[in-house]
Write a structure and sequence with these properties.
Length: 335
């Protein structure tokens, strides 16, 4: 990652490039050195922890000086890496989760996730001396070097209190699932709504002012996954998208002008699309497995138009609804 240093009084090689290894923790000690600041050992009687990092001020006017920062560990959300003398070993820990097995208890819990095992993470190895963009994985070619750096990471992790490793959500409070969430009118932003166990019902109260009304009633997610309820060519559509594989429910007849209640029901055995309490379309729940849940919270729900990339390829842009929307009500099991 590039870093631009602006220091007119001290930089003589303006526009020069430096290739010494540095880490973000080096910025503070560099600033301290360049400004001549003194860091106190105690503040208000409290001893201060030593500042980590190594100043790279030496390299400003010594372009060929050897790197002084030769060892550095990394860790974030369970992903980790170890750098030493130009070599870097790294393991990405995915943010995805294992779904509850079909045979497991309470398979209706659509947000159940089991964190991936850290031992399943794949380690990679790069020589930054001649491959600083990390394009050639040398793990298979130099297994002993990889083993050395993995062992060094363990030592640095213990010394710096990294263990136990924590994944993306570990340690964060659980989202409170409300029995009812009401969204009004057309959105100017996306609303995060935690989704819990089935059944989940989403009801939209709308008004068709003329037979040409169309657009999005509510949407959550984006092109890579989510759900969207919309009207196009007079027909009500509900599309569920998982990794760009779309499953849809569609009405067979247009809505008349006037007020209507449109509801999508995610039940334990089926997904239903209704208008004014009349079933328009239905499919088994297993056909829509994994298509409701995380995106409603992480990406958020928008009402009256799409606030993200289109959830379905069947429309483009924000596709704002040209009729009227009173409320969108989400009902579910609270906890």
């Amino acid at each position: 990652m590039p870093l631009i240093v602006f220091y007119p009084k001290g930089i003589h090689d303006k526009g020069g490039v430096r290739m010494q290894y540095n880490h973000v923790i080096d910025v503070l000690p560099t600033t301290v050195e360049l400004t001549g600041t003194t860091i106190p050992d105690t503040i208000n009687g409290y001893p201060q922890m030593p500042i980590q990092g190594i100043s790279f001020a030496y390299s400003i006017n010594q372009p060929d000086a050897p790197s002084k920062h030769t060892v550095q560990y990394y860790e974030l959300h369970g992903g980790r890496a170890m750098y030493k003398d130009g070599w870097k070993a790294e393991a990405y820990h995915p943010k995805t989760y294992k779904l509850r097995p079909e045979s497991g208890p309470d398979t209706r819990d659509i947000n159940f996730r089991a964190p991936l095992d850290y031992n399943e993470d794949q380690w990679e190895l790069y020589n930054l001396n001649n491959d600083w963009t990390e394009t050639t994985n040398l793990a298979a070619k130099y297994p002993e070097k990889l083993k050395e750096l993995k062992a060094l990471f363990g030592q640095e992790a213990i010394k710096n209190h990294v263990y136990p490793l924590k994944d993306f959500h570990e340690g964060t409070p659980k989202d409170r699932v409300k029995p009812q969430t009401v969204l009004y009118g057309q959105s100017s932003s996306r609303f995060p709504v935690p989704i819990g166990k089935l059944p989940v019902k989403i009801t939209a109260n709308i008004e068709i002012t003329n037979t040409n009304n169309e657009g999005i009633i509510f949407a959550h997610g984006d092109l890579f996954g989510g759900n969207v309820l919309y009207i196009k060519n007079g027909l009500v559509h509900f599309v569920m998208n998982k990794a760009q594989k779309e499953v849809s429910l569609q009405a067979s007849a247009p809505l008349a002008t006037g007020k209507h209640t449109i509801r999508v029901e995610f039940l334990t055995d089926k997904v239903r699309l209704l208008a004014d309490e009349q079933e328009l379309a239905v499919m088994p729940t297993n056909a829509a497995k994994g298509l409701l849940g995380n995106t409603a919270y992480s990406v958020g729900i928008s009402v009256g138009k799409s606030m993200n990339s289109p959830v379905s390829k069947s429309y483009s842009g924000p596709f704002p609804f040209t009729g009227k929307i009173s409320t969108v009500v989400i009902e579910q099991q609270g906890k």
